[in-house]
Amino acid sequence: MKIFTAQQIYQADKFTIDKQQISSDQLMENAAVGLFNWIHGNLNGSQVKIHLFCGIGNNGGDGIALARHLKDHGYHIEVHVVNYSEKRSKDFLINLSRLKERKIWPEFIDAKSSLPQLSPNDIIVDAIFGIGLNREPNPWVVQLIQHLNNSRAFILAVDIPSGLYMDRVPKNTDGIIRATHVLSIQFPKLVFFLPQTGIYLNTWEILDIGLDPEFVQMNDAEFEYIERWDVLGLYRPRPKYAHKGTFGHTVIMGGSLGKIGATMLASRAALTIGSGLVTAYVPECGLVPLQTALPEVMVLTDSGEAHIQNMALPFTPTAIAIGMGLGTGNSTAGTFETFLEATESPLVLDADAINLLAANPKSIKKIPKNSVLTPHPKELERLVGSWTDDFDKIQKAKAFSKTTKSILVVKGAHTLVIHGEKGYVNSTGNPGMATAGSGDVLAGMIAGLMAQGYEAIEATIFGVYLHGLAGDIAAHEFGYEATLSSSIIDAIGDAYKALFQREEPPEQVKE
């Protein structure tokens, strides 16, 4: 699902109006009907009090038009116009006139007004600001927003929580609606998925208002939201006459004294995701643990007893994941750059491999094209530098990806896959995956998919999605706190099966 910018959404509106020969007021009416149907479908005529807080732009016009439909169906409403400017949008004024024709007189709120009385049992519809917000709200509007947030009422935001921008992080966090639920018009918004802005909504869903599908097909989006149907298109069925050699040979290179478990997790994940063969390349201290714990995995030992020193493989694997538990000592660092220059296999760089790159920036130029890097947030900061906010982080990640021609995984509640100027937002995963070894599992899964012949970007998108889906299944069984990285591996098979089931897998909690 494409995630368009504010400018593209305005263009989609205009395209639809011109092609379908309708008015902008009709689009607003479509939105109002969709909003009403959602509310009516959930309340079914309940006489709970509904407060509509409407700005004086098009977002407010949606709220005013919604009020008319609610009143026509007998709902108990109060309409409050947040009078933050002398300017009024044309469609807002049209719908305000229609509301007054029904003898419904909104309360106009300005800097001198008393704050309206609210109850925790009420419903608040937030239609104050839309996607066009371009400056900080006035102090009295901030005070009103705080009043709404403190009411403990259910807050339904129209399109986007008021106070959020589409392209930057607000400075005044007090002036942002904390929405219980968002009905996002036609497209999701990138701010729903970033740590600094996603905290202002609990859940969201799309409200289709009939924007013309031709616009969506014709126009590329900077980001896409990856869902089940997207990854189903990537899946490669297994041919009947396949054998283990058909699905590649993955090497997991890492581990050190006390950190062999990281290599174990990645190796098992690569095998479980479907790699035909998996070899763990570890220091000598890892031989017995791996041979004992993972009989399906082959083991090659390096000449180093406690740390890898040579990184020399006697064969060319189909894919390599390197870095988990590797260590960053001098002996390891000395051979790492040589390894980068010599390797011919598709590469996943994780953990200490990324730390070694950050410690020696010259080696970054030697990253093979289409390599996949899977840093956790601190490793990402070491790699691309510190950032001022989430949008700056994305720009730095894009710059790194373009310069190195690599794929960068920006981990989080909604992991981002950055490939040059293009970004992919993952829809699976949960807080239970914030556990030791989860990243090792992801690196192994991506490498295992690459070994099976998936292109690097396909393997990354698919791997991130399946990793999150397996985490959702594991958390559903064990709870967030008791979900382990090994639990995620155990659920990979069920994650594959869930792709082809009609019913949806356990729904994740969106924070």
Structure description:
It is a single chain. By secondary structure, the chain is α/β, with parallel strands linked by helices. It has 2 domains: 2-213, YjeF N-terminal domain (Rossmann fold), CATH 3.40.50; 230-498, Ribokinase (UDP-N-acetylmuramoyl-L-alanine:D-glutamate ligase, 3-Layer(aba) Sandwich). 39% of the residues lie in helices and 16% in strands. Strands 1-9-18-17-16-15-14-13-10-11-12 form an 11-stranded mixed beta sheet, with helices on both faces. It has a 7-stranded parallel beta sheet with strand order 4-3-2-5-6-7-8, with helices on both faces. Helix 3 (58-72) links the parallel strand 2 and strand 3. The two termini are 20 Å apart.
What is the CA-CA span between the terminal residues?
Answer: 20 Å
User: What proportion of the residues form beta strands (DSSP E)?
Assistant: 15-25%
Shape: elongated
**Total tally of structural domains:** 2
Number of E-type strands: 18
Average pLDDT value?
96
Number of helices: 17
Spell out the CATH superfamily of the largest domain.
Answer: Ribokinase
CATH topology of the largest domain: UDP-N-acetylmuramoyl-L-alanine:D-glutamate ligase
Mind telling me which CATH architecture of the largest domain this is? 3-Layer(aba) Sandwich
Rg over CA atoms: 26 Å
Counting helices, strands and paired strands, the structural category is alpha/beta
Low-confidence stretches: 507-511
Could you give a short account of the major beta sheet? 11 strands, mixed
Determine the oligomeric state from the structure: single chain
Which range best describes the helical content: under 10%, 10-25%, 25-40%, 40-55%, 55-70% or over 70%? 25-40%
Output the strand order for the largest sheet: 1-9-18-17-16-15-14-13-10-11-12
| CATH class assignment of the largest domain | Alpha Beta
